[in-house]
Design a protein that fits this description.
This protein is an all-alpha fold and 72 residues long. The protein has a domain at 19-66. The protein contains 3 helices and no strands. Helix 2 packs antiparallel against helix 3. The protein is flat. GO terms for molecular function: metal ion binding.
Amino acid sequence: MWMYEKKLQYPVNIKNPDPALAKVIISQLGGPDGELGASLRYLNQRYSAPSREVQAMLTDIGTEELAPRTYK
C-alpha cells in the first residue's frame, strides 16, 4: 500500500523568483550536457568497454553522476 504525500523534504520560501537562474539550473540538471545526460552516456558506454575494470569504472562514474549533489 502506498501513501503519497505531496510535500517537500525541506520547506521552500521563494521571495524573489529569478527565471534566468532557474533556466541555467534546469539546463545543468536535465539538459543535454547536464548530470542525467552525462550519467546515461557513462552507463551506456560500459557495455562496449574492453575490460571488466573499465566497465566497473564507467559504472562507478555513471552512478556518481546520478547521486544528489550537496552544494555549500
